Amino acid sequence: MHSLSAFFVGALFGAGLIISGMTDPSKVIGFLDIAGAWDPSLGLVMGGAVIVGLVAFRVARRRTTTFLGGTMGLPAERQVDRRLILGSLVFGIGWGLAGFCPGPALVVFGAGYDKAVVFVIAMLAGMALFEFAERFLDGGTK
Amino acid sequence: MIDWAHFTPWSALAGGLVIGAAAALLLLLNGRIAGISGILGGLFRPMPGDTAWRVAFVVGLLFSPALYGLFARLPGATIEAGYPVLILAGLLVGAGTRYGSGCTSGHGVCGLSRLSLRSFAATAAFMAAGFATVFVIRHLLA
Questions:
Q1: Could you give the 3-state DSSP secondary structure of residue A38?
Q2: Do B92 and A97 touch (CB under 8 A)?
Q3: What's the rounded Cα separation, in Å, for the pair B43 and B40?
Q4: What is the Cα–Cα distance from B102 to B34, expressed in whole angstroms?
Q5: Which of A20, A82, A125, B106 is most exposed, with the fewest beta carbons within 10 Å of its own?
Q6: CB-based contact (8 Å) between A127 and chain B?
Q7: Distance between CA atoms of residues B48 and A11, nearest Å
Q8: Are B90 and A119 within 8 A, CB to CB?
Q9: Would you list the domain boundaries of chain A?
């Protein structure tokens, strides 16, 4: 049941990305190019998503179980630390270089673009590198 | 200067609402944050009972262009970056999102929706890095 809902939600999320324009890296870079011919569209994507999200998280906060009877898993972390900022800066550089963030990259991979396939493989390699570093360089604390 | 020719406010807003609806459903049905990098990254640390929904969500994302194509014409994706840049960008996005605990969806959509200070900081950081990277590439190096 949880897998079925996750599949449909994944497909719906992808459809939203396609409708919004996020799956076109040249449009994403047009949004990030504030000093050039700036296309502010993608700000509205985040705005639209957050409007719905605000309602959803208000509902979720009042519940301990989900509508399918599972546990509600909200992040507990509160601290703004070096990892958070450094990681986000590194992510932002990659995002600006290619115009892809993880969700749209997977969708465009699914549409069969060779360049998205290469990006996604590199992204998975980056995640694997992170896991390796966490486990073997950080003393296995995480 | 705003690029009015490429400005698509309505599709951006509509797509954003769909993305928000998908994030709301994953939260209220599965009790999970719709953060793509976190969902993918969790597959590198498999825990019992925690893998199937992640795979199902990712498969849904991958199939979203095919499903979308049944109802409407799939918009194209223009990927200007060459392969070496895509590989570098993919590595940075993969490692950065894991180190910073999230990407555009997890911090940008879900985090802002639950008014998390951490996510506001992360979103500010990756947006700033994205703006700066595009500025360097388009206006300093070009």
A1: strand
A2: yes
A3: 6
A4: 10
A5: A82
A6: yes
A7: 24
A8: yes
A9: 2-137
Lowest-pLDDT choice from A55-64, B51-60, B83-92: A55-64
Read off the pTM.
0.95
Greatest Cα-to-Cα distance within chain A, rounded to the nearest angstrom: 50
* Sign of the alpha-carbon dihedral angle for B67, B69, B74, B79: positive
Taking alpha carbons only, the member of B100, B107, B91 closest to residue A100 is: B91
Q: Is the pLDDT of residue B89 over 60?
A: yes
CA A77 to chain CA centroid, nearest Å: 18
Pair A104, A17: CB distance under 8 Å: yes
Strand partners, A71: A65
Q: Inform me whether the C-beta atom of residue A132 falls under 8 Å from chain B C-beta atoms.
A: no
**Among all residues of chain A, which has the CA nearest to that of B77?**
A24
| Domain extent listing, chain B | 4-141
What's the gap in Å between the CA of A64 and the closest CA on chain B? 9
Give the closest residue to B107 by CA, choosing from A66, A2, A88, A64. Answer: A88
Chain B residue with the nearest C-alpha to that of A22: B12
| b (16+ CB within 10 A) / e for A63-94 | eeebeeebebeebeeeebeeebbebbbbbbbb
Chain A stretch 56-115, residues whose beta carbon is closer than 8 A to a beta carbon of chain B: 56-57, 59-61, 65-68, 70-75, 77-80, 83-103, 105-113, 115
